[in-house]
Write a structure and sequence with these properties.
Blueprint: E1 16-19, E2 24-36, E3 39-47, H1 48-57, E4 64-67, E5 71-74, E6 78-81
Parallel strand pairs: 1-6
Antiparallel strand pairs: 1-2, 2-3, 3-4, 5-6
């Protein structure tokens, strides 16, 4: 079953990301997305301090990303990914 993208980036911004064993991977500070038929579709969640720098300083900052396809659960306080 495919997980639907959130309606707004604010639904995932700042959330803690963990893998299926509960290991912390970082927090979401930025994302890569595209528009498809007037719908915002997430491609990748960008994590950690470098993602925050990317958000503040621009795309020249390299950062760690998790493909949206790896997300298995979006909860109120965390996002769980399959690795």
């Amino acid at each position: 079953m495919e997980l639907e993208s959130p309606k707004a980036f604010s639904e995932v911004m700042g959330r803690r990301v963990v893998d299926s064993s509960g290991r912390s991977l970082g927090r979401v500070f930025e994302a890569r997305a595209h528009w498809e038929n007037d719908t915002f579709v997430l491609d990748e969640l960008l994590l950690g301090r470098r993602a925050l720098l990317r958000r503040l300083r621009g795309p020249a900052q390299e950062c760690r990303g998790i493909p949206w396809e790896a997300v298995v659960e979006v909860g109120p306080d965390r996002i769980v990914v399959q690795r």
